Amino acid sequence: MGGAVIELFLHCLYAFLACLGFCVLFRINGLGAVLCSLGGALAWLVYLLTGSAMGENDILQYFWAAVFLSAYAEVMARVRKCPATGYLLIAFIPLVPGAGIYNMMDAALRGDTQDFLTTGLHTLSIAGALAVGVLIVSSLVRMYNMLQRRRRTGKEEGP
């Protein structure tokens, strides 16, 4: 049990440090860099924890990590009064399917069409799961904000 917790902690630490490196690249510093990197580490933790719950279906793992990350970015954007895009840009680094893209291109260069298509479709599925996760949360937040704005102004749209 203790070894599994340490392994989870190390995975999240590595994700945090990778995001922190990109914060330097994008000139995000101070508390913003820590919060962006924390989002990446927490999203990776969600990915790892949903692995056993989802039966090792990595596409669903990526989806739930993206949903969590998008919600985290929206909350941080409201709390810190800055765009959610910055949090998403940095914190998505651990979730980017870089190995899949590399393996897909390697198969293409080797001329292995079957492996290229299999790896490519899987990588595109991961990218789609990430995009849908962000889209769902973003759409729900926009709908909530629109309803709140209408309630404040007293405008009700009817038939």
Topology of this protein?
Blueprint: H1 2-25, H2 31-53, H3 58-80, H4 84-91, H5 98-110, H6 113-153
Q: What report would you give on this structure?
A:
By secondary structure, the protein is mainly alpha-helical. The protein contains six helices and no strands. Helix 2 (31-53) crosses helix 4 (84-91) and helix 3 runs parallel beside helix 6 (113-153).
How does the overall form come out from the CA principal axes?
A: globular
Distance between the termini: 59 Å
Helix content: over 70%
Q: Total number of helical segments?
A: 6
| Cα-atom radius of gyration | 19 Å
- Write down the overall mean pLDDT: 92
Largest sheet: none
SSE sequence, one letter per element: HHHHHH
- The total of beta strands comes to 0
Structural class, from helix and strand content? mainly alpha
**Percent of residues in β-strands:** under 5%
Poorly predicted residue ranges: none
Keywords for this entry:
6 helices; 159 residues; mainly alpha
Q: Summarize this, please?
A:
With about 160 residues, the protein is an all-alpha fold.
